[in-house]
Amino acid sequence: MTATTRRRALALGLAAPLIASPLALGVRAQGAWPAKPVRIIVPFPPGQAADIFARLLAEKLTDMWKQQVIVDNKGGGGGIPGTETGKAAAPDGYTLMVVTSGTFGVNPGLYPDLPYRPLVDFKPIARFIAGPLVIVAHPTFPANTLAELIALAKKEPGKLSYASAGPGTAQHLSMELFKLKAGVDIEHIPYKGSGPAMADLLGGHVKLMMDSTASALSPIRDGRIKAFAVTTARRAPAPLDNIPSIAETVPGYDSAGWVGLAGPAKIPDEIVARVNADVNALLRDPAIARQFEERASVPTPMTPADFTAFIDKDMATWAEVVKATGTKPGN
After folding, report:
1. Of 49, 136, 197, 221, which sits with the fewest C-beta atoms within 10 Å of its C-beta?
2. How confident is the model at residue 4 (pLDDT cuts 50, 70, 90)?
């Protein structure tokens, strides 16, 4: 090998790392994620089921990732404004979005001008839980069973009212489905989140409500509210296994809420896979699963592909419910 050849070989040898360095740097950057705090947007006020489960996982992910995971509540508007914030976030993995049966299941069929498309503007990452909702009432409410509630509503059509977490939420649509199947007329009073609605229920300002089992569990346990029935076809797990299902009184009724995590559409697949694996590992931890089950909800780990297919099916299901009940935004 001549000196000139050696110089060319040396030059090429030095050039190779320089050519490869962007890829190498990219790999190192991906491997270093997260290198700073991660924000999880919850499009509802504190105290709602989505918020409860997001905070539980955020605490565990903070320990796992050695970076603070911050829950950022942006409530109101049926979860739409908060979800828009998540859509506009940089797709770098440092802003994630809590998604629910309301924001990703119900809203696409309810709002013809919805400013986001769940499976176009977002990339589903992981599902946390699936669980029932529950019809609850203030202790002074005259009915004590679901059958008595139905009889009272039929006796006084349009005179009873119920609170929900807001128009278009799973709580709202699940109650509308109950009204349709039970043949009753009960006025809807929408709130800006489950927390404010529950506060008014506890204060006796409203007498009836559809809520998640997670946020209603504590006041049910201590007798501050009474529970009529859960929305799933079967009864909820302990500690609410003594509460009947709606289907026991209204055959064929079945509705469940769910909570999950998504990122902006262009979030790297490598980060999606990492977050999915870490969230699913937490959901399979017996101690953490027990905390979910204590709130009458079931951990439901899924792959990103399975979660995407699930959301697609859920949107179709709720679109049919919206059409059948004649529900419009805001009512």
Report:
1. 221
2. very low
Strand order in the sheet with 122-131: 69-73, 38-42, 95-100, 257-264, 122-131, 298-299
Given this chain, do its domains 35-131+256-325 and 133-248 carry the same CATH topology?
A: yes
The rounded distance, in Å, linking the Cα atoms of 31 and 53 is: 27
Beta-bridge partners for 126: 261
> In whole angstroms, what is the distance from residue 272 CA to residue 296 CA?
28
8 A C-beta contact, residue 330 and residue 167: yes
Q: How is domain 133-248 classified at the CATH fold level?
A: D-Maltodextrin-Binding Protein; domain 2 (3.40.190)
pTM (2 d.p.): 0.75
Element (H, E) at 264: strand 257-264
Assign domain 35-131+256-325 to its CATH architecture: 3-Layer(aba) Sandwich (3.40)
In tens, the pLDDT along 56-81 reads: 999 999 999 999 999 999 988 889 99
